Protein backbone atom coordinates (compact mmCIF):
# COMPACT_ATOMS: atom_id res chain seq x y z
CA UNK A 1 0.00 0.00 0.00
CA UNK A 2 2.81 2.42 0.94
CA UNK A 3 4.73 1.65 -2.25
CA UNK A 4 1.60 2.24 -4.34
CA UNK A 5 1.01 5.58 -2.59
CA UNK A 6 4.65 6.57 -3.14
CA UNK A 7 4.39 5.53 -6.79
CA UNK A 8 1.37 7.81 -7.16
CA UNK A 9 3.41 10.77 -5.93
CA UNK A 10 5.95 10.28 -8.69
CA UNK A 11 3.32 10.13 -11.45
CA UNK A 12 3.95 13.83 -12.00
CA UNK A 13 7.12 12.90 -13.85
CA UNK A 14 8.15 16.46 -14.86
CA UNK A 15 7.92 17.67 -11.24
CA UNK A 16 9.79 14.63 -9.92
CA UNK A 17 12.41 15.01 -12.64
CA UNK A 18 12.92 18.65 -11.67
CA UNK A 19 13.11 17.58 -8.03
CA UNK A 20 15.94 15.12 -8.87
CA UNK A 21 17.95 17.94 -10.48
CA UNK A 22 17.40 20.26 -7.52
CA UNK A 23 18.15 17.43 -5.08
CA UNK A 24 21.46 16.88 -6.89
CA UNK A 25 22.34 20.53 -6.23
CA UNK A 26 21.42 19.88 -2.58
CA UNK A 27 23.74 16.87 -2.36
CA UNK A 28 26.04 17.23 0.64
CA UNK A 29 24.15 20.32 1.76
CA UNK A 30 21.74 21.15 4.54
CA UNK A 31 18.23 20.62 3.24
CA UNK A 32 15.63 23.36 3.16
CA UNK A 33 12.37 21.81 1.99
CA UNK A 34 10.68 25.14 1.33
CA UNK A 35 13.48 26.40 -0.93
CA UNK A 36 13.57 23.12 -2.83
CA UNK A 37 9.77 23.15 -3.18
CA UNK A 38 9.91 26.67 -4.63
CA UNK A 39 12.57 25.59 -7.13
CA UNK A 40 10.49 22.57 -8.18
CA UNK A 41 7.10 24.29 -8.27
CA UNK A 42 5.53 21.87 -5.78
CA UNK A 43 4.61 22.02 -2.10
CA UNK A 44 7.04 21.40 0.75
CA UNK A 45 5.08 18.29 1.85
CA UNK A 46 5.44 16.90 -1.70
CA UNK A 47 9.20 17.51 -1.60
CA UNK A 48 9.35 15.78 1.78
CA UNK A 49 7.56 12.76 0.22
CA UNK A 50 9.94 12.80 -2.75
CA UNK A 51 12.93 12.71 -0.39
CA UNK A 52 11.26 9.89 1.53
CA UNK A 53 10.90 7.91 -1.72
CA UNK A 54 14.64 8.35 -2.37
CA UNK A 55 15.41 7.16 1.16
CA UNK A 56 12.97 4.24 1.05
CA UNK A 57 14.45 3.02 -2.23
CA UNK A 58 18.00 3.40 -0.85
CA UNK A 59 18.87 6.03 -3.44
CA UNK A 60 19.69 8.63 -0.82
CA UNK A 61 20.41 9.16 2.84
CA UNK A 62 19.98 11.99 5.29
CA UNK A 63 22.74 12.77 7.77
CA UNK A 64 21.32 14.27 10.96
CA UNK A 65 22.80 17.15 12.86
CA UNK A 66 24.84 16.27 15.94
CA UNK A 67 22.86 17.80 18.81
CA UNK A 68 24.32 16.35 22.00
CA UNK A 69 24.53 19.06 24.70
CA UNK A 70 25.49 21.96 22.45
CA UNK A 71 26.91 25.10 24.02
CA UNK A 72 26.66 26.96 20.73
CA UNK A 73 23.55 27.45 18.62
CA UNK A 74 23.56 24.72 15.98
CA UNK A 75 21.71 23.93 12.76
CA UNK A 76 19.17 21.15 13.21
CA UNK A 77 18.28 20.38 9.58
CA UNK A 78 19.81 17.23 8.09
CA UNK A 79 22.26 17.07 5.19
CA UNK A 80 21.31 15.05 2.11
CA UNK A 81 23.47 12.65 0.06
CA UNK A 82 22.64 10.48 -2.92
CA UNK A 83 23.81 6.86 -2.59
CA UNK A 84 26.54 7.39 -5.17
CA UNK A 85 28.64 10.36 -6.23
CA UNK A 86 28.30 9.24 -9.86
CA UNK A 87 24.52 9.67 -9.74
CA UNK A 88 24.98 13.21 -8.47
CA UNK A 89 27.51 13.99 -11.18
CA UNK A 90 25.17 12.61 -13.85
CA UNK A 91 22.16 14.61 -12.59
CA UNK A 92 24.26 17.78 -12.46
CA UNK A 93 25.68 17.07 -15.95
CA UNK A 94 29.19 17.49 -14.57
CA UNK A 95 32.06 16.73 -16.82
CA UNK A 96 35.52 15.97 -15.56
CA UNK A 97 36.06 16.85 -11.90
CA UNK A 98 39.26 18.84 -11.60
CA UNK A 99 41.33 18.42 -8.41
CA UNK A 100 41.40 21.44 -6.08
CA UNK A 101 38.13 22.80 -7.50
CA UNK A 102 34.96 23.34 -5.43
CA UNK A 103 33.35 20.49 -7.36
CA UNK A 104 36.24 18.20 -6.40
CA UNK A 105 35.85 19.12 -2.73
CA UNK A 106 32.14 18.29 -2.75
CA UNK A 107 32.67 15.03 -4.64
CA UNK A 108 35.53 14.07 -2.30
CA UNK A 109 33.37 14.71 0.79
CA UNK A 110 30.60 12.59 -0.76
CA UNK A 111 33.09 9.79 -1.47
CA UNK A 112 34.38 9.88 2.12
CA UNK A 113 30.77 9.72 3.36
CA UNK A 114 30.22 6.57 1.29
CA UNK A 115 33.39 5.02 2.71
CA UNK A 116 32.29 5.84 6.27
CA UNK A 117 28.91 4.18 5.68
CA UNK A 118 30.62 1.13 4.20
CA UNK A 119 32.97 0.89 7.20
CA UNK A 120 30.11 1.24 9.71
CA UNK A 121 28.31 -1.62 7.99
CA UNK A 122 31.17 -4.00 7.16
CA UNK A 123 32.88 -3.58 10.54
CA UNK A 124 29.62 -4.53 12.23
CA UNK A 125 29.86 -1.45 14.44
CA UNK A 126 26.83 0.32 12.86
CA UNK A 127 27.77 3.62 14.52
CA UNK A 128 25.64 6.66 13.78
CA UNK A 129 27.00 9.29 11.39
CA UNK A 130 26.06 12.93 11.85
CA UNK A 131 27.48 16.37 11.08
CA UNK A 132 27.88 19.47 13.25
CA UNK A 133 27.29 23.04 12.14
CA UNK A 134 26.77 26.19 14.19
CA UNK A 135 24.50 29.03 13.14
CA UNK A 136 27.68 31.11 12.69
CA UNK A 137 28.90 28.65 10.02
CA UNK A 138 31.48 26.56 11.87
CA UNK A 139 31.19 22.97 10.65
CA UNK A 140 32.56 19.47 11.04
CA UNK A 141 31.65 17.24 8.10
CA UNK A 142 31.22 13.99 10.00
CA UNK A 143 30.79 13.05 13.65
CA UNK A 144 30.96 9.30 14.21
CA UNK A 145 29.22 7.67 17.13
CA UNK A 146 28.61 9.86 20.16
CA UNK A 147 31.38 12.27 19.07
CA UNK A 148 34.06 9.57 19.37
CA UNK A 149 35.56 10.52 16.01
CA UNK A 150 35.26 13.74 14.02
CA UNK A 151 36.27 14.16 10.40
CA UNK A 152 36.68 17.34 8.39
CA UNK A 153 37.12 16.64 4.68
CA UNK A 154 39.16 19.00 2.50
CA UNK A 155 40.06 18.48 -1.14
CA UNK A 156 43.25 20.50 -1.16
CA UNK A 157 46.96 19.85 -1.50
CA UNK A 158 47.79 21.66 1.73
CA UNK A 159 45.47 22.14 4.68
CA UNK A 160 45.54 25.70 5.99
CA UNK A 161 44.71 26.85 9.51
CA UNK A 162 41.41 28.41 8.35
CA UNK A 163 40.28 24.99 7.07
CA UNK A 164 40.31 23.72 10.66
CA UNK A 165 38.15 26.41 12.33
CA UNK A 166 35.12 24.14 12.62
CA UNK A 167 37.13 21.22 13.93
CA UNK A 168 38.85 23.43 16.52
CA UNK A 169 35.49 24.85 17.65
CA UNK A 170 34.12 21.31 18.03
CA UNK A 171 37.17 20.33 20.09
CA UNK A 172 36.51 23.28 22.41
CA UNK A 173 33.05 21.92 23.11
CA UNK A 174 33.55 18.14 23.00
CA UNK A 175 36.36 15.67 23.59
CA UNK A 176 36.41 13.15 20.75
CA UNK A 177 38.80 10.22 20.88
CA UNK A 178 40.18 11.19 17.45
CA UNK A 179 39.83 14.17 15.15
CA UNK A 180 40.87 14.02 11.52
Tell me what you see in this structure:
With 180 residues, the chain is of the alpha+beta class. The chain is 44% helix and 14% strand. It contains seven helices and seven strands. It is globular and about 50 Å long.
Produce the secondary structure layout:
Elements: H1 2-9, H2 13-25, E1 29-30, H3 33-40, H4 44-56, E2 60-63, E3 79-82, H5 85-91, H6 102-122, E4 129-133, E5 139-144, E6 149-151, H7 165-173, E7 178-179
Parallel strand pairs: 6-7
Antiparallel strand pairs: 1-3, 2-3, 4-5, 5-6
Helix pairs in contact: 2-3, 2-5, 3-4
Query: Mind describing the biggest β-sheet?
Result: 4 strands, mixed
Oligomer: single chain
User: What characteristic shape results from the CA principal axes?
Assistant: globular
The first-to-last residue Cα distance is 45 Å
Order of helices and strands: HHEHHEEHHEEEHE
Strands side by side in the biggest sheet: 4-5-6-7
Overall number of strands: 7
Query: What's the average pLDDT?
Result: 88
Quote the beta fraction: 5-15%
The class by helix and strand makeup works out as: alpha+beta
What are the segments in which pLDDT stays under 50 over at least 5 consecutive residues?
A: none
The gyration radius over C-alpha positions equals 17 Å
Helix content: 40-55%
Give me the number of helical elements: 7
